[in-house]
Design the sequence.
């Protein structure tokens, strides 16, 4: 080991200690707990093999939540990416009031997620919520709709809220990516007679790819694990049909005090996200790491 | 130097950690800060640290503290959590701290549910009972008296129901306290949650009858707020205060909410509709001590101080609670006449069962109720599924 390498490792020590205490230790602890019989305070009593997993798999709510999680993540991330891409392209053009528009875009980001979610719970209220009031004013609604009463209406609504709060971050990332593309490339393409679609397809898209990859990956991880919107708007009601894994996990852990089953669920989330990240980055960066 | 001196004094003090629960009116924080500072003035060697925590996160926060081996000396808990703490061996029996003179001051029946296996584990800190609130205008308009039993409840609800301006009867049924309405009707029908052997029996004839009646109100007669599974008790309290719910069962704090949201509301308070018997749900919250905390003797000093009549009277009146001490009860009726209906109901009071898995059991009850209200299952099927799930999966463990 050279002297430089030694110094490098030495510099890594503080962050390794930090990671060990706040990341590796809890993950390891959760892994152990999942295979043990535990008391209501999470103290491990005895090795229990896969019992926590079989208990989990026998619950209908788990499969509903898992299914919902995929719909939720796909819906929120998919629409967010498309919408943010359009927004960032628009905000990258020069127009009057661009800086104001950019600041407005950042506003939802500055609000805490739980506050946004609670405000929406009130907006959706069938008795004095803003949404029903507005829709009946413009004549789009004849009957009273209770948006949070069933999956059919509440889940799309929550996906909509999820999209709204994910856009600022994603647009910012795209905007940064767009601004890093040298303008000369576009000018050169123009001189060669490339139209705007061709410039987008052959300059913007390939050069935006690394940023695009990161945006999708981070969004999938954030949204998959996003707790406040669903917890505040429906809390999984009615009859545990609108949970995603992470809200159901919370209910099992902190309402039912069943830390064994909750840990088993946490491990499944971990495995899903880890394999997604690995497969996705492998496909995307294949032969393109330079 | 001054800093050193000050920290030196702080170190010498005995620290008592008290986790208090925040009640409905939002004044709990100031109240406990005042009691703690007056106690500290009288006992300079003790430092009382009060954390006032919302009910929604209280159980989880305590679980975290206990799990980390740092339980507080004292906590204000929902009494139904006590069996869980006792079976886990973390609750401290209070018999050795409590003098007979101290104990005698309380309404003795309130100790019934905190004595387990002959040991006393808690002191009532908040007492409440439920009653039915009704709007006077719609009842007067149809010329009907407040209902006394199920038949009259249905008749009045039918007569006044006029959606979306007014819903005849309000039934909240979400994960948060949805089971309370089942208790009101199950008990009125003469049923119980558990039999003597500890078997969960909501699939009894009375258990099914109660659910059938509630579901009929929602689905057959359509005289209630239409989606019970999408509104919780707190939200319905506000809708009632807006004058949009004809009748609704809740606690004494509704009076404060009406006053704050809609001071002109004309409403009355009456007994919960009876069927085979008159009941109400009595609820107590409990002050308990944790075995693992270091300064339990100092903590008890604080308990005796905080339970002086003047403090309890202020707490009960501010929070809209019923008295736990006999003397305080007499004073309360002078100050707050409306509490009389609730105090009159206390003899009919039944407590929710004390069971270590109660939180999970209520989760199952609410889920099955919601399925029945939504018409996904018959009430009979829902209660049979509920009993089976609780007796096998929850009580046995898997």
Sequence:
């Amino acid at each position: 080991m050279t002297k430089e390498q030694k110094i490098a490792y030495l510099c890594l020590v503080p962050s390794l200690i930090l990671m060990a205490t706040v990341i590796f230790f809890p993950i390891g602890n959760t892994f152990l707990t999942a295979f043990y019989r535990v008391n209501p305070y999470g103290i491990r009593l005895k090795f229990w093999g896969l019992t926590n997993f079989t208990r989990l798999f026998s619950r209908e709510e788990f499969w509903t939540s898992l299914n919902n999680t995929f719909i939720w993540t796909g819906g929120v991330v998919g629409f967010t990416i498309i919408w943010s891409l359009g927004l960032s392209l628009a905000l990258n053009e020069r127009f009057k009031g661009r800086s104001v528009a950019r600041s407005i875009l950042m506003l939802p980001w500055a609000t805490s997620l739980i506050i946004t979610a609670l405000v929406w719970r009130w907006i959706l209220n069938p008795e004095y919520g803003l949404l029903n009031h507005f829709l009946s004013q413009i004549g789009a609604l004849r009957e009273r709709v209770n948006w949070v009463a069933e999956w059919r209406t509440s889940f799309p609504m929550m996906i909509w809220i999820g999209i709204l709060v994910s856009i600022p971050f994603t647009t910012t990332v795209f905007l940064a990516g767009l601004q890093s593309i040298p303008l000369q490339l576009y000018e050169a393409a123009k001189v060669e007679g490339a139209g705007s679609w061709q410039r987008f397809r052959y300059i913007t898209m390939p050069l935006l790819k690394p940023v695009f990859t990161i945006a999708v990956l981070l969004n999938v991880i954030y949204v998959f694990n996003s707790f406040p919107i669903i917890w505040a708007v429906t809390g999984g009601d009615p009859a545990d049909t609108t949970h995603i894994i992470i809200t159901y996990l919370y209910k099992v852990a902190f309402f039912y005090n069943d830390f064994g089953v909750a840990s088993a669920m946490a491990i499944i989330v971990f495995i899903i996200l880890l394999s997604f990240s690995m497969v996705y980055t492998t496909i995307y960066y294949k032969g393109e790491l330079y | 130097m001054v800093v050193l001196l000050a920290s030196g004094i702080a170190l010498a003090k005995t620290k008592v950690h008290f986790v208090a629960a925040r009640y409905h009116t939002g004044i709990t924080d100031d109240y406990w800060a005042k009691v703690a500072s007056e106690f500290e003035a009288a006992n300079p060697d003790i430092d009382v640290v009060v954390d006032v925590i919302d009910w929604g996160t209280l159980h989880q926060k305590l679980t975290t503290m206990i799990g980390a081996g740092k339980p507080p000396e004292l906590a204000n808990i929902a009494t139904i959590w006590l069996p869980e703490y006792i079976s886990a061996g973390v609750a401290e029996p209070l018999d050795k701290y409590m003098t007979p003179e101290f104990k005698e001051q309380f309404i003795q029946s309130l100790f019934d549910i905190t004595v387990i296996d002959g040991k006393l584990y808690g002191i009532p800190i908040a007492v409440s009972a439920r009653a039915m609130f009704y709007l006077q205008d719609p009842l007067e308009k149809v010329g009907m008296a407040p209902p006394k039993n199920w038949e009259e409840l249905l008749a009045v609800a039918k007569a006044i129901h006029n959606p979306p301006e007014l819903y005849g009867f309000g039934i909240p049924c979400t994960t948060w306290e949805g089971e309370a309405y089942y208790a009101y009707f199950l008990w009125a029908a003469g049923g119980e949650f558990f039999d003597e052997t500890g078997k969960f029996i909501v699939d009894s004839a009375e258990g099914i009858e109660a659910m059938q009646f509630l579901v009929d109100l929602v689905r057959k007669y359509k005289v209630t707020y239409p989606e019970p599974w999408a509104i919780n008790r707190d939200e319905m309290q506000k809708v009632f205060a807006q004058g949009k719910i004809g009748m609704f069962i809740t606690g004494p704090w509704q009076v404060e909410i009406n006053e704050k949201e809609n001071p002109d509301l004309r409403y009355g308070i009456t007994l919960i509709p009876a069927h085979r018997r008159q009941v109400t749900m009595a609820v107590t919250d409990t002050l308990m001590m944790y075995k693992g905390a270091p300064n339990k003797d100092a903590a008890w000093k604080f308990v005796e101080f905080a339970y002086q009549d003047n403090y309890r009277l202020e707490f009960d009146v501010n929070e809209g609670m019923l008295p736990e001490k006999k003397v305080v009860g007499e004073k309360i009726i002078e100050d707050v006449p409306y509490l009389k209906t609730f105090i009159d109901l206390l003899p009919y009071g039944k407590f929710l069962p004390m069971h270590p898995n109660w939180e999970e059991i209520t989760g199952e009850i609410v889920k099955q109720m919601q399925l029945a209200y939504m018409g996904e299952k018959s009430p009979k099927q829902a209660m049979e599924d509920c009993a089976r799930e609780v007796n096998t999966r929850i009580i046995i463990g898997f």
In short: Chain A touches chain B through 29 residues (CB under 8 Å). Chain A has two domains: 29-58+258-290, 71-244.
